[in-house]
């Protein structure tokens, strides 16, 4: 019998019930004497061993992980199935290591999830995004699906400047400014060094969660108004903007230019002459491209097309990551896809390993025996967290084969 046929037969026989599972396992003893099992005892796993029909029947049904020796010949089995780091549950202080170690099989192993799981991690992500947008004052259109809500949320994060202290570096070309402009630059510099919020200096279009900043997505360059309150017709600086590059530790002041300068290659040339390391990762050696005028580049960007300017003798791919033909940042697009993929993977791992998760919760100091798992995916600045709602215990350490 082929492995695929045996696998289908096993699940058909098991039927999701413990008693039927044991009977199905016993039936495989006649097919292959090397059927192996690992049984959890006191939160610790024993290495698998060859098991006879009689020993299968004498072991009480309980927390069980099965590796099918009957399904794969010994020479095709990986040798390190028992060397992966098992997951842990958080203790009452939220630190790892407070509960039993549980091993989650993936890939070659077949995990049997016998405990019902009630979870919708994609819905949890969407709820988080909606609440985040609403809390920041953004309106989510009626009927917006999870993908649109995700893109709105991540687009706002993409365009905002994260609040943290940063030192400031000025381009050598940024000299001989008027007194008023120098005072404005000093005000922004001090705010940055103190870790103040610089987002009030951004365009008023930040209030539109679906506005796409072509300059930022293309060249990775922000632009700030010199006044955080007086913008548009009331701007005392006549519409002058500060163009800058933002990193985790630094603000790089590039130039003071007007609103007609978003496609000026001068911006990249200034970055190259002052901080070439910013562009190093984006240089494409051996690639040639036709040089465009600033106006041609502006027209192309308005139609969703990307240009490849030559800077420092090399063609430079978009330092901002680029954008799609709709203008959406590629970083936002990929962030949405990754979020959904990770949520789906985590939910699948939880469903496939529900028996082990339930056993770990039962043995946790704050846990108890559960007939079903009610899992919620929560998001904070540290990433994604899985919480069992009935007990408040956080599940950690789920891993995939990748």
What attributes characterize this protein structure?
four-stranded antiparallel β-sheet, four-stranded mixed β-sheet, alpha+beta, 402 residues, disordered N terminus
Describe the structure in your own words.
This protein has three domains: 1-83, no CATH class; 115-144 and 329-402, no CATH class; 145-321, no CATH class. 33% of the residues lie in helices and 16% in strands. It has helices at 3-14, 18-28, 53-58, 121-135, 146-159, 179-193, 214-219, 266-274, 277-280, 294-302, 330-352, 354-363, and strands at 36-41, 44-45, 49-50, 64-67, 116-118, 167-170, 222-225, 241-246, 250-257, 283-284, 310-311, 314-316, 372-380, 383-388, 393-395. The strands form four sheets. Strands 1, 2, 3 and 4 form a four-stranded antiparallel sheet that branches. Strands 5-13-14-15 form a four-stranded mixed sheet. Strands 6-9-8-7 form a four-stranded mixed sheet, sandwiched between helices. A hairpin with a 2-residue loop joins strand 1 and strand 2 (44-45). Helix 4 packs across helix 5 (146-159) and helix 5 packs across helix 11 (330-352). It is elongated and about 70 Å long. It starts with a helix and ends in a 7-residue tail after the last strand. The model is unreliable at 1-112 (pLDDT under 50).
